[in-house]
Automatic annotation (TrEMBL):
Species per Swiss-Prot/TrEMBL record: Carboxydothermus pertinax
A GO cellular component entry from the record: plasma membrane
Keywords of the record: ATP-binding, Cell membrane, Kinase, Membrane, Nucleotide-binding, Phosphoprotein, Transferase, Transmembrane, Transmembrane helix, Two-component regulatory system
The keyword Magnesium belongs to this UniProt entry's keyword annotation: no
GO molecular function: ATP binding; phosphorelay sensor kinase activity
Tagged with keyword Phosphoprotein: yes
Histidine kinase/HSP90-like ATPase domain segment(s): 458-545
Compartment(s) where it occurs, according to its Swiss-Prot or TrEMBL record: Cell membrane
Chain ranges of the Signal transduction histidine kinase 5TM receptor LytS transmembrane region domain: 25-189
Protein name (Swiss-Prot/TrEMBL): histidine kinase
Length: 552
């Protein structure tokens, strides 16, 4: 028995060595995924069925039977692919064994088929352990024990079957159990290796994306492309990195930069093909790259199109001086990196559009200076010319300053102190108009004066308070409060006017203000309008703390 045990170990070691080399192939890496294609399932069935046949031929003839490692193939097929695949792989190996003949032919054929099925059922029952060594050993020993029972039940004469099982039973149970466990150890190491490499590439891609994000906020141009290409070159093993738009090379750094010049037309036919088809292209020889320079060292490349809203806008290209440096994970990494850059470019475009929209809305607001305010101001000045010429002259100067400030080119955000100057000028005329029956109370925290706010934001709230709250009462009090709270500026305009009616609707000015806040600050900028319990209205702005650079 000990000699048989040693012989089985020797034969199994050859099979395990073969399995090790197979596990390193791209095909095998693909089939250990959870979701198998029909083609991969068929490959598993045939491949591990043949593995079982090899185990039979590599066995040791004993008393008209064969001590072997046939079970390893169908069992692994079942563990990887499930009960059906294990059953069919076992059927291939089992039919072959039955065809060879011998008094255990039928029993061995049936047991091999059943073993593949049971291995698949156990792996489905304990999916978290299917690549575990201990699980493999216990599964292998269990199904080999079952084979011995089937031989005893079906093989005749029984005495010969019993004599055979006494000799081969324990060695085959132990050796094949260990064999399946070792095979699963190889699978486990392959899975972990793949996960580790994937994690390394994912971390590398995210690191690159983190470094390029602030650069690509300015969009893709020759300056930003050069910075991004240099970052990618330093963070990868590529020999050259290039970025293009649809017609020219925006940047090319590394090998070949002496003739792949920025600003020149795209030189390689492979890039043109990738841009036209919008499909990632892998080039594995110099001829396919298509560079016209005979001294160009670039021998292989991965060319990934860049998209904005599903439209190709350029390409990311990683070049290598040797054709064998492009592997499965390199392609996946570059494809993922191109998607991250495409997302950054799309976000940049959306930010740019939001800024342009904010500027357009601001210009529209400037163009819609309330004519009633102008006429009322002029009428007030005319009336004062007779009774108080000095005040009339002062109001004319302030009206000029008011219009000059309102019609100038404003930034999307200005300091609150600057906005309060607009409010002060506006209230100068309203106070004169109300014959000093309009009172204003300012409570502005010094810390909030430099907070950036949209131009005319507070003035819009004050105009709304005067027009809809104070005017119907022929006078009243307006309070303007501003403070910092939870790293945001809270600005309130409170009046003691007539308050909001139940069916009150937000006017055009306040609606435009809400839209401007959304475009500038997303959900962080908020506007609230509510009635006071004792009469009047509260308008509240919540503005996040931003710098001017954050909007560029």
């Amino acid at each position: 028995m000990s000699e048989l045990f040693i012989n089985l170990i020797e034969r199994l070691s050859v099979i395990i060595t073969l399995a090790f080399f197979i596990s390193k192939t791209k095909l095998f890496r693909n089939v250990i995924k959870q979701d198998l294609t029909l083609r991969q399932k068929i490959g598993l069935i045939i491949g591990f069925g043949l593995f079982g046949i090899i185990g039979t031929y590599w066995g040791i003839p004993i008393k008209g039977a064969i001590a072997n490692s046939r079970v390893v193939g169908p069992a692994i097929a079942g563990i990887i692919g499930g009960p059906t695949i294990g059953l069919l792989a076992g059927l291939i190996a089992g039919v072959h064994r039955a065809w060879l003949g011998g008094f255990t032919a039928v029993a061995c054929g049936i047991s091999t088929t059943v073993e593949g099925l049971i291995a698949g059922i156990l792996a489905r029952r304990f999916p978290e352990k299917r690549f575990n060594v201990a699980f493999g050993i216990l599964t292998g020993m269990s199904i080999e024990t079952l084979q011995m029972i089937i031989i005893l039940l079906l093989a005749r004469p029984f005495d010969d079957a019993f004599s055979l099982v006494k000799i081969i039973g324990l060695p085959m149970i132990l050796v094949n159990g260990i064999g399946i466990g070792v095979f699963l150890l190889i699978l486990e190491s392959t899975v972990k290796e793949k996960e580790h490499i994937g994690a390394v590439y994912a971390e590398k891609a995210l690191n690159i994306a983190n470094l390029t994000l602030p650069i690509l906020r300015e969009g893709l141009n020759m300056k930003t492309a050069a910075e991004v290409a240099r970052i990618i070159l330093n963070k990868t093993d590529a020999d050259a990195v290039a970025l293009t738009d649809k017609s020219i090379i925006l940047a090319h750094v590394g090998s070949g930069e002496d003739h792949h010049l920025s600003g020149t037309s795209i030189k390689t036919t492979a890039t043109a093909k990738a841009l036209n088809n919008g499909v990632l292209t892998v080039v594995l020889n110099k001829e396919a790259i298509g560079c016209s320079n005979s001294g160009c060292k670039l021998a292989s490349a991965v060319i990934a199109p860049l998209f904005i809203k599903n439209e190709v806008v350029g390409a990311l290209k990683l070049y290598y001086n040797k054709p064998d440096k492009i592997g499965e994970f390199t392609i996946i990494f570059i494809e993922g990196l191109s998607r991250l850059i495409s997302t950054q470019l799309e976000l940049s475009m959306l930010e740019s559009q939001a800024k342009l929209l904010a500027r357009a809305e601001l210009k529209a607001l400037q163009a819609q200076i309330n004519p009633h305010f102008l006429f009322n101001s002029l009428n007030t000045i005319v009336a004062l010319c007779r009774i108080n010429p000095d005040q009339a002259r002062e109001l004319i100067i302030k009206l000029s300053e008011y219009f000059r400030r309102n019609l100038r080119e404003w930034e999307p955000l200005i300091p609150l102190a600057e906005e309060l100057k607009n409010v002060e000028l506006y209230l100068t005329f309203e106070k004169a108009r109300f014959s000093n029956k309009l009172l204003v109370d300012l409570n502005i925290d010094d810390k909030v004066k430099e907070v950036l706010v949209p131009p005319f934001a507070v003035e819009t709230l004050v105009e709304n308070a005067v027009k809809h709250g104070i005017l119907p009462k022929k006078g009243g009090l307006i309070q303007i409060n501003a403070k910092l709270q939870d790293k945001k500026a809270v600005i309130e305009v409170v009046d003691n006017g007539i308050g909001l009616s139940e069916d009150a609707k937000i006017g055009v000015g306040l609606s435009n203000l809400k839209e401007r806040l959304r475009n500038l600050f997303r959900e962080e900028g908020q506007f609230y309008l509510s009635s006071k319990e004792d009469g009047g209205t509260i308008s509240r702005l919540i503005i996040p703390l931003l710098s001017k650079e954050a909007l560029r």
